[in-house]
Specification:
Shape: globular
Number of strands: 24
Distance between the termini: 15 Å
Strand order of the largest sheet: 22-23-1-24
Radius of gyration: 21 Å
Strand content: 25-35%
Helix content: 25-40%
């Protein structure tokens, strides 16, 4: 599938039990960061289990454009021969980040304190997303930007000639913003400090330390304070990418709603800043267990077993949990449709500025399939129909958003009538093996004319 070509309509039909092992791809967040940090190292970083979705491939191409030697050795094995901190070359052409908000924001951060000029663009979805949340703090380092109205791509960044260290309080919970500032801080003298009022996924801090940067984290009255000492010499590493919990969410949630299902998803990263969905599902009464818990590459990992759970109930998801599951709210709303009672999701304003307005997209699609949804600017509520009572039958708009497309296809796996999406092509950006993987478990997902 391609997120950049002609639309690929897809339909999901109610199926028999889903059974077997779901070997989901590598973690997208860690894959992006492995390539970017590898490019900023001295020496050769080797990576196994890299997610080879289009988003990550676009980041690999960007690192080549900045002068790093990035090689695909097959079967998820890659190597990156870096140019060192501050060593990016000026790219010859536009940096195309496709559909990836994570990719473009992290790459902008990495180049913002280097004395080069680069222009960034993407697909229609990415070019409509706000970039000011990243370019505003990057301006504090001395980086200049010129873009479309509303701070949108295409956008040209002029890196700081003499970067200054920054102390920045992140105004809204965003791992992308935090990470962009930290990556910019790598080539600034002195100490760059980032303060987040609510903890977000901490892969950047963990990986910076693993690559040899001096990073300290402490809790203060203002929030979680991360201090990075700039201009280190990062050391090449071997990275084993754990499997992506955001991708695992789809076979897990499908197993919970399809009668008779028993699915094992091995080797999933359970970093506490990423595992909020699984905690929420268990609170709803899902039969979801962790097996073989272990530590790999400094990250907690386990095998997840999900079984059909007909008696799930709606809950109020704590707003403080939003940062640890922000990408999983669309598929959570699907599970909530099969639960009894209301599932209330608050503090989720960030969903309105993702690849699409995810609250609006899911609300419209769920209503079309017979589910009651109420929404506000930073909250939404799904009133579950209960197992066996989700009507289905609608064609839903994916809005060039991979998670919206996959969520509605999961909805159709237990609905009374098939559920379709107008374009499943964007699924390739994060989960290129979604179709064969779900088919191997027993799902009935087809491409439709």
């Amino acid at each position: 599938m391609s997120g950049h070509g002609d639309p690929i309509p897809m339909t999901s039909t109610a199926c028999g039990p889903l059974r077997g092992a779901a070997d989901v791809p590598g973690d997208k967040s860690i894959s992006h960061r492995s390539l970017i940090l590898g490019a900023m190292c001295v020496g050769e970083t080797t990576i196994t289990g890299l997610l080879e979705g289009q988003d990550v491939l676009d980041t690999a191409a960007a690192m080549r454009a900045f002068g790093a030697e990035v090689t695909d050795h097959g079967e998820g094995r890659w190597s990156v021969r870096g140019v060192g901190v501050g060593g990016f070359a000026e790219p010859d052409g536009v940096i195309d980040c496709g559909n990836s908000g994570t990719g473009v924001r992290l790459i902008m951060g990495a180049m913002a304190t280097q004395p080069i000029v680069a222009t960034f663009s993407g697909d229609a979805s990415l070019n409509g997303r706000p970039m000011a949340r990243v370019t505003d703090p990057l301006a504090l380092f001395g980086c200049k930007t010129v873009g479309r109205s509303g701070g949108r791509l295409p956008m040209t960044l002029v890196g700081a000639q003499e970067p200054l260290p920054v102390r920045y309080v992140v105004p809204v919970p965003s791992a992308q913003v935090k990470s962009a500032v930290l990556l910019a801080g790598l080539n600034a003298p002195g100490q760059t400090v980032v303060i987040e009022k609510e903890a977000t996924r901490d892969h950047t801090e963990r990986m910076l330390e693993g690559f040899g940067a001096q990073v300290s984290v402490r809790e203060t009255e203002e929030g979680r304070e991360i201090t990075l000492t700039g201009q280190p010499e990062l050391q090449a590493q071997h990275i084993e990418v754990p499997r992506d919990p955001s991708s695992a969410a789809f076979p897990v949630c499908a197993a919970l709603i399809v009668p008779g299902s028993d699915v094992l998803v091995p080797g999933i990263g359970l970093n506490p800043t990423r595992a909020g969905l699984f905690t929420t599902l268990r609170e709803m009464g899902a039969d979801l267990t962790y097996e073989n818990e272990r530590i790999e590459g400094g990250e907690p990992v386990a095998d997840l077993r999900a079984r059909f759970s007909p008696d799930m109930r709606g809950i109020e998801v704590p707003p403080a949990r939003a940062a640890s599951m922000i990408d999983e709210y669309p598929v959570l709303s699907v599970v909530a449709s099969y639960a009894s009672g209301q599932t209330v999701m608050r503090g989720v304003r960030e969903l309105r500025v993702k690849e699409s307005d995810r609250i609006d997209a899911m609300a419209k699609g769920l209503r079309a399939n017979g589910i009651t949804v109420d929404e506000g600017e930073d909250w939404w509520t799904v009133t579950g129909a209960g197992h066996g009572h989700v009507a289905g039958g609608a064609v839903c708009a994916s809005h060039l958003d991979h998670r919206i497309a996959m969520s509605f296809l999961i909805l159709g796996m237990a609905a009374n009538a098939p559920v379709s999406v107008d374009d499943g092509g964007p699924i390739a950006t994060s989960f290129p093996i979604f179709e064969p993987l779900m088919a191997a478990l027993g799902a009935d997902v087809s491409r439709t004319a």
